[in-house]
Amino acid sequence: MPRRTDLEKILLIGSGPIVIGQACEFDYSGTQACKALREEGFQVVLVNSNPATIMTDPEMAHRTYVEPLTPEFVAKVIARERPDAMLPTVGGQTGLNLAVALSEDGTLERYGVELIGATLPAIKTAEDRNLFGAAMARIGLEMPLGFYAGGPAEALEGMRQRRMQFPLILRPSFTLGGTGGSIAYNPDELEAAIKWGLQQSPMGQVLVEESVIGWKEFELEVMRDLKDNVVIVCSIENVDPMGVHTGDSITVAPAQTLTDKEYQLMRDAALAIIREIGVETGGSNIQFAVNPRDGRMVVIEMNPRVSRSSALASKATGFPIAKIAAKLAVGYTLDELRNDITRETPACFEPAIDYCVVKFPRWAFEKFPEADQTLTTQMKSVGEVMAIGRTFKEALQKAVRSLEQDRWGLTLDRPPADLETLRQKVRVPTPERCFAIAEAYRQGLTTEEIAELSAVDPWFLENVREIVELEPRIRAAGLADARVLRRAKQMGFADCRIAELTGTTEPEVRAARLAAGIRATFKMVDTCAAEFVAYTPYLYSTYEDEDEAPPTPRPKVVILGSGPNRIGQGIEFDYACVHAAFALKEIGVEAIMVNCNPETVSTDYDTSDRLYFEPLTFEDVMNIVERERPRGVIVQFGGQTPLKLVVALQAAGVPILGTPSDAIDRAEDRRRFAQLLEGLHLAQAPGDTARSFEEAARIATTIGYPVLVRPSYVLGGRAMQIVYDEEDLRGYMREAVRVSPEHPILVDKFLEDAIEIDVDAIADGERVVVGGVMEHVEKAGIHSGDSACALPPYSLGDDQIQRIMAQTRALARELGVIGLLNIQFAIKNETIFVLEVNPRASRTVPFVSKAIGVPLAKLATKVMLGARLADLGFGEEREVSHIAIKEAVFPFVKFPGVDAVLGPEMKSTGEVMGIDRDFRKAYVKSQLSAHSPLPTSGTVFISVKNRDKRAVLGIAKRLSEMGFSLVATTGTAKLLSLQGMTVETIHKVAEGYRPNIVDLMKRGEIALVFNTPEDGRARKDSSVIRRTAITQSIPYYTTVDGAQAAIGGIEALLKGEISVQSLQEYHAAP
Amino acid sequence: MTQALLALADGRVFRGEPCGATGEAPGEVVFNTAMTGYQEIMTDPSYRGQLVCMTYPLIGNYGINPEDMESSRPWLSGFIVKEACPYPSSWRGRTSLDAYMKEHGIVGIQGIDTRALTRHLRDQGAQAGIISSVEGDAARLVERVRAVPSLVGRDLVREVTAEAAYGWAEGTWDLRRGYTEPAAARFRVVAFDAGIKRNILRRLASLGCALQVLPAGTPAEAILEMKPHGIFLSNGPGDPEPVEYLIRTVRALAGRVPIFGICLGHQILGLALGGTTYKLKFGHHGANHPVKNLLTGGVEITSQNHGFAVDPGSLERVGVEPTHVSLNDGTCEGMRHRELPVFSVQYHPEASPGPHDADYLFQAFIALMEGEKGG
């Protein structure tokens, strides 16, 4: 069946902001889908609130709506665009939930929009556990026993009826990334878990399920077309057994420990499931658990859409699941589509792999020290890496160094001295377990014992044992024995790890092995295990005989990617790298991408001319650079990851493109930075570098508290804090950082109540053009990545903006910037202070690019290769008549017990953009998109710190006038009453009387919370309020500025209609 | 760490480590892209005379179990892997790959760049080779490879066929129960054993066939005396052309009793009906081959293992039409006679290893016998 001709315009739904459980894999799949549908001549309309995505680039779709992903707003887009069909299966759970909502409220029917990719009954059968269970029963497949409960009593009763035993798995329905899921080992835990789950479930139901903890976990990626052809793209086996969310598990592809008989049973089951659920076209992900003792197989769940695992499967096999899914959705069948990689063979086949793929999750617990690091059924990781090797051992060790955690082998940072603690670390799944297992072997535990403790399959354990057992041989042999060295490299040992073991240095190891002729060879990921010739150079390194993809004679540039997503370095940097590749292709330079993040667009083999799926370490990058001999390497787009390598790369004679790397040092080194600003007569908050506590205390006393303290060379505000007195400072230096002469900390005067400004600019050596000046909604002190900001500024005068731009130009010229530059300013009492200069792509580059309609990263790439801005059509600043607001999205809901307050350390995982011609409307959109819809009626709880009491009066007054009731704690209430406002007093939690404010919130009597926490240590008192707001999904604001913007938004909502408009329209020439 | 060598006829030599039995093994070097099912592959008699390179690098992970045997012993001449797993992990496994190979005298090599070998075979074609864990001199080994006879023109069926007729009473494998009881017998079926895989017999037995498995040399008259409802032509090793006795027998039987052929059986049938066969450059060996069913338009993912193919053009004039075609290279994957109750496929509907997509062909055989019985 060829392409359908009855469809012209197709609506695609993106997945919105990056959150735990739903990350840039959906930009990868959405981008593929956009490209595939355009290629087929369809009009593509896209809705996605996340500006940091490639899919929202204006050239990806015909109409790009950066609007809230709510049924109301998508309905507005539908009413305006009248698409023929909607493809919801590439937008994650968000896409599916919207499809369900818009089907059920009749919108799709009203406008004649057909759901393609998955029908409503299919989505519902897959998502509703009762319907799914019934479907599995019909095709004779087993599931773990389970039932839905609406409360703890019901759960206990259901358990008794079914004779189920503890432990039990609890999962709220319709949530993503296992939000609200947990494990209960006794009735008390069950009660707590049910209550927690109920708060998370939009349906008010929790699934209570028989535990299959300790069973082996597998996933199959399945594709089906309208002619009922079904293929399995990839099998994935989890190293961590059932009980750990698959997003938090180390996984391997293909499955390693299933006999063909068992694998085929699983394959048969997958085919039967996709048919029974009725996913007519596209990809699905099906999870199975297998009892290691007798092979009993149960179905865990199915996702009738592309997923994180399908992105991984695509990268692991070279089979572009989302692209093919999009084409199947518009009528093609699998046999009609070609395999891009082999060209000759069809897409209707099952990839054969001749390597081993390991995915390793990346957690961000350093950002949330209070959070429980135990891994359970609720996903906690924020990113992942993938590594490819010819053996599991090689791939595992490559994955570990890809994580960029200064860990070069399977080592624990602090190996416990006693075996009991070590056993505990092997038994309890945490981010460290894999390393604890290696340590257990070092300390003499046996495979049987480790398997018993961890329930990890002995096959994986034995591989770890082999790695560990080579360590003493490497240690003994030193660098002299080429055979041992070769064996170590084949097992994936990093040069740095060999250096650790042999007491040498990385350059010595490198020199020794190169002298012995031990060098990396490169092989292709080709979907077919070399059975056919492959045409797309998608490469990985290994230590084998044959290198099969010699470099081309073309001029080329290497782009270093940003590695695994983490808080502070996420999709925004991948976005810039992708643009670099696009720009290079446009000017006929071969684009060579190096990255190890399987979720990204940058690691799509389509993005660059040549893709190296490799760790971003000096060793691995040099292996590539030495063979490719590029004209240069681009390091300014991938965030801190490539910047960390600059010094070593330069020392090795590798040409770095763009801004001279000394500029980075001038911007990062405290004293040189001060000299730079002095030379330009620019203001800087007073401060100095401290190499000990005493020094820090002296500096702080001199400049006066509060001070901002942070280690030098950080990204995402790691360990950055505002300190109010000496005791605070002592605590910070005891708990947060280890200060030393080698690792100094910076102590700066904290500019209270200053307005913070972010600027992104681009320079070509002659001209400096400012891309955007962004004014933060929150005052200085909140990390810029966590602060909402507006472009253009909404409260600054023209002269202030002009001065900021002039300072930006001066700094860019002085630093010799060629490419991108980001500067943070603060304005206090009319003085402009320069806070920070980053001569590289910043987190806000995609936001600014979307807001002004200029692809900054692309231009910067061309500039780095010698183009002039004027020739690129960006010779001067772009004026816009609309306003774009960026808002941050936080993962607090995933970390019970963590205080949800903002500060100088970045905590957000993602961002959204609200765009409108009116500031307040743009703000409303940004809030809706960030998942906290603003109420238009109800009761508002107000509790502010003393300093904010004056500001809160105006806020309260406006709220009263709009018809909201007010509730406040004693102090605030007294103040408001004095001003003649009607306000109810409510007890603080600490006062001990009931009902207190938290009771009211839990009863659903509070619609909105304004709570500005006390500074410093006192803030803990109010954390329970913020925590409750998160779990109850009550919008809350912790700054006066945020509150004021929110009220403006509510006013706009009350005044009525908020309309939608596409980026293409915003940016159309007037 | 001792050394093992693999030398190819064109002079290319791979150095690795030995696995399995010590010794020297000549054969045609082929690669198989299946990621699971090495035990079934090793015990498939169709690999007689071949050195099989597994493209998936980690082999032996789940060991060897007593159930997944496709015949009484491994038949391949030698085994080539990247990493032979010494610590198998499976509730079904009983012994390691290495121990099994030693037990049966199978010589192997591991630790070589199997992808480089695969690319070489893909580009240069399947060719003779020798694995040796006793010869240290590569040049001498290459000399010896040149003396290894080609598969073309050799009757390998004689080496693998049953010595005497036997019955079959084992059904399909089940996770809980292992091999099941066969279904109540409804059809008398004789199966020519040209190197038959047990799973074919199991599938037929599970569908109600009472089976007599016969040596490939059994004459047509003896078959007809048994009054079978259907005749099955099995898979088997090597070149079909020299298996003249079987071709003659099939020619005598075609049209008189329903016939179903698989793999070598398909080629024998093609030759018996007057067609021709030819050798493929490097053959089809794997579990992911897409085949289009020309009768339904659907695609099946199939298990394949053949180095020769039937030329469908040669059969047009004798009333045979192609029913299945390879989507990878367009070669003939199945055919049927327009009038006679005769059909065959080049691939392996019995899977083992591989997907079960083509299992319907066994039902089709049953239906054909039912039709003939009724009519």
User: What name does CATH use for the topology of the largest domain in chain B?
Assistant: Rossmann fold
Unreliable parts of chain A? none
Q: Major β-sheet of chain B, in short? A: 10 strands, mixed
Which term fits the overall shape of chain B? globular
Helix content of chain B: 10-25%
In DSSP terms (H or I, runs of 4 or more residues), the helix count of chain A works out at: 37
- Compute the number of strand runs of chain A: 38
Major sheet of chain A, described briefly?
7 strands, antiparallel
Could you tell me the number of beta strands of chain B? 21
Widest sheet: strand ordering of chain B: 10-14-13-15-16-21-20-19-17-18
Quick summary of this structure?
The complex is a heterodimer of chains A (1070) and B (375). Chain A has 1070 residues and is α/β, with parallel strands linked by helices.
List keywords for this structure.
heterodimer, A: 1070 residues, alpha/beta, 7-stranded antiparallel β-sheet, 38 strands, 19% strand, globular, B: 375 residues, Glucose Oxidase, domain 1, Rossmann fold, 10-stranded mixed β-sheet, 7-stranded mixed barrel, 10 helices
What can you tell me about this protein's structure?
- The complex is a heterodimer of chains A (1070) and B (375).
- Chain A has 1070 residues and is α/β, with parallel strands linked by helices.
- Helices cover 36% and strands 19% of the residues of chain A.
- Chain A has 37 helices and 38 strands.
- Chain A has a seven-stranded antiparallel beta sheet, sandwiched between helices. In chain A, strands 31-30-27-28-29-32-33 form a seven-stranded antiparallel beta sheet, sandwiched between helices.
- In chain A, strand 37 (1008-1011), helix 35 (1023-1031) and strand 38 form a beta-alpha-beta unit.
- The longest helix of chain A has 20 residues, at 458-477.
- The two termini of chain A are 44 Å apart.
- In chain A, 60% of the residues are buried.
- With 375 residues, chain B is α/β, with parallel strands linked by helices.
- Chain B has two domains: 4-145, Glucose Oxidase, domain 1 (3-Layer(bba) Sandwich), CATH 3.50.30; 157-373, Class I glutamine amidotransferase (GATase) domain (Rossmann fold, 3-Layer(aba) Sandwich).
- In chain B, the strands form four sheets. A ten-stranded mixed beta sheet of chain B has the order 10-14-13-15-16-21-20-19-17-18, sandwiched between helices.
- In chain B, helix 8 (244-253) packs across helix 9.
- At the A-B interface, helix 9 and helix 16 of A face helix 3 and strand 17 of B.
